[in-house]
Amino acid sequence: MTPLPQLKTRLAEIVDLHHASALIGWDQQTYMPTGGGAARAEQSATLQKISHEMFTAEETGRLLDAAAAEVAAAGAAGLDPDADEARLVSVTRRDYEKARKVPSELVAEIARATGQAIEVWTQARAQSNWAPFSPYLARIIDLERQLADALGYTDRPYDALLDQYEPEMKTAEVQAVFDAIKPDVIALVKAIGAKANPLGDKVLHREYDEQKQWSFGLEVIKRYGFDFDRGRQDRSVHPFTTSFSINDVRLTTRVDRNFLSPALFGTLHECGHGLYEQGFSQTLEHTPLADGASLGMHESQSRLWENLVGRSKPFWKFFFPKLRAAFPEQLADQTLESFYRAANTVSPSFIRVEADEVTYGLHIMLRFEMENDLIEGRLVAADVPEAWNARMQEFLGITPPTTAEGALQDVHWSSGLIGYFPTYQLGNLISLQLWDKINTAIPDLTDQIEHGEFGVLLQWLRVNLHQHGRKFTSPELLQRITGGGLNPAPYLKYLNTKFGEIYGV
Amino acid sequence: MTPLPQLKTRLAEIVDLHHASALIGWDQQTYMPTGGGAARAEQSATLQKISHEMFTAEETGRLLDAAAAEVAAAGAAGLDPDADEARLVSVTRRDYEKARKVPSELVAEIARATGQAIEVWTQARAQSNWAPFSPYLARIIDLERQLADALGYTDRPYDALLDQYEPEMKTAEVQAVFDAIKPDVIALVKAIGAKANPLGDKVLHREYDEQKQWSFGLEVIKRYGFDFDRGRQDRSVHPFTTSFSINDVRLTTRVDRNFLSPALFGTLHECGHGLYEQGFSQTLEHTPLADGASLGMHESQSRLWENLVGRSKPFWKFFFPKLRAAFPEQLADQTLESFYRAANTVSPSFIRVEADEVTYGLHIMLRFEMENDLIEGRLVAADVPEAWNARMQEFLGITPPTTAEGALQDVHWSSGLIGYFPTYQLGNLISLQLWDKINTAIPDLTDQIEHGEFGVLLQWLRVNLHQHGRKFTSPELLQRITGGGLNPAPYLKYLNTKFGEIYGV
Question: Is the ipTM reported for this complex over the cut 0.90?
């Protein structure tokens, strides 16, 4: 065997370990009995340890060097530099160097610190008391700063942290785009506030049979094109999507008898992630390239199918009669228009995961700014709740009545996930940049959606985005698809147009 | 760390890999979409390869030697030779030596040969045509004979194969017991044949709501003592039990709308396996000792709860009224007595997995004799169907109309599982040897079962058998519990008494 197939064999085993690890994580959140928790944590740690050791071994580096030489020779002989194998070597080289840069003592120290911090945070949130959590966050910020130093950066330490989730995306670029968006969105929220629909989303909070909710969600995502021969959906407390192969993609969702949104929009959201994972080229199967380009790019797909499609008027033109047929009593007093407005209610609120399309971005920008302040030393952990509340007032005009509804609401910081939050908003921005291109490419898309047809849309995404997996970074993909970088204009135009129409502002 | 904890750490990681492997196997048979099959096979192979490499590495041997010295020193200072840690070292030493004896080329060759053979067998069975499968079986027999030579034996080559599933059990001992049983059972089958109940088990083949069957099975196994905080039950095409921890034991069962037995007795059978796995001492968690002593000992537990309890008159005194409450129409014409007889119908039949308590053992003895004939060269693969049919006529007085209902019915031989079949019948024999001891130890057991009380029975099994896991072999456990070796008398007495009463013979 030449070095390239040797490298692929080694990477395939590492992929197998990652997929086994993903499966035991899926089981933990779907079917595992409570008694299995302790053993499961050990199993997970062992699989991660072994795959990390295999990946960061000198042997992997040796094979990468030799395979790079093989690819270079093939390149001189005409191999496309974007060919799967060329990209496999360069992307894996990037992963390898990142993985080797972090001392294993630091990895262990972060694991220990976050293990404790999550427990303390759980208690602190339950008691809505920042004080006990504060020193743990301070410790995590210190470790994350060390992590940034280990990973290396040229401009901002946050670059190194963001790069873990959004490779090659720079803090300065994100900040510039967020800064460009902020005043307009704050203004829109204020304008809507004055005209808010007094009924809000009350209709979504009626009683809906759980099995019928489940079935309706499945009906929609079958039409979206989710392939149930290559995936399935199960229940979990916290919805997520994972996969163990391009041909085995698992969605999970939750169902609330007294609230339609979790099962309905949650299913569409996770399906967006799932369609991305089912869409990687089969030539990437069993390689590290069969994964999303970044968390932001992944989120662009979930937001596209949840919001741009699933909360649109054309979508509900097709699906509202079907939903009313499933729930005739609950929706007897509703029209397409009233239901569409309920599903698009905008209202400043404290909890990020319950935020609407307009206010959501502000929740993220708040966190992004605070993470940078923490990492760059302008803010200390003890002052976080105060800084949080000040920004909530500035961005949304509200102040959380408790810290549990403020700075303690998310698990991310206690888990050491600094640099993760902005990817949610990058997903929103990217989804609109794609949506602009899609509407140009498919002029009758609205008409197709009104008829419940999503095949051409999915095909566009497959060809332009999904098939590539991790062959390209999100900045590279944006360049290929839109000819430029992050651009806030489509996002702002969408919010202003859609919610301007709904709220008459 | 001294060598013993080092050894335990290494073995714990290997256990983690085995459990991850078991989980991906469980998922494959319960929830995996069809598309996941190809990747799953690779994942499974990778986990097995890595755990095999870790286990057979020189480092494991070095730690075993050092840990053995540590245990010997502790023994000199008074450590019980049956203490967990002493047994961990001796049992692992036995596993290690067995694993190191088989050349990896032979393992790979058997994997390749059986991979092909299973495909050919699937086709051959569908067409009921022995010829295409014959050369594949010949190849497997040749490889299994090589495997026996590699593993080593002093008396019979079959000893080495049997030892994989039933450590330290000898072919000669099994054969002596089977030979002692055979004439009596053949005579009993003949005697019953003349008096067979003309209605047979027709009542079990009525239409039973699937969800109610499922619920009834769960109600019984909750009473048996299966702990649903440390386990669960799911559906699969082929029922099985597996576990990923003493505290995470998974049963599976199937449900047939037109046949009560699969979900009912299948659930009780798998629960017997599950109670064994939940009963290992918690001190054995995360070690290779947290497993059944042998397949035969495992099967003794499934048979005990399925047959000795679940097909007994006292059991049905308690549960028949409940079953009739669940299915009032289907069981309107039934009495306790008629239902009990239906559930214990004896009739010679072609398919092993559908056989009753009396005829089942004969199906196994037939396979045991033929496997020995094949391995010792007295029979060649091409002559198997003829030899099979001759024995079916001798043992059960019937001749399969097709090879699919004869020598092609089981997957075991195509999978290279030579030496596996006798463990099923060993399970039956051992279950009765235990049952004798139990009835002496718990004189009012019948009364307890009539009242749906199983706690004292389970406690006896926990204390005398379950807690030990793999600390002792099945011959050692038999010796500890019964004071002797395999003994056919309790089995024969049970069959003659129970079925003598039912059939008046």
Answer: yes
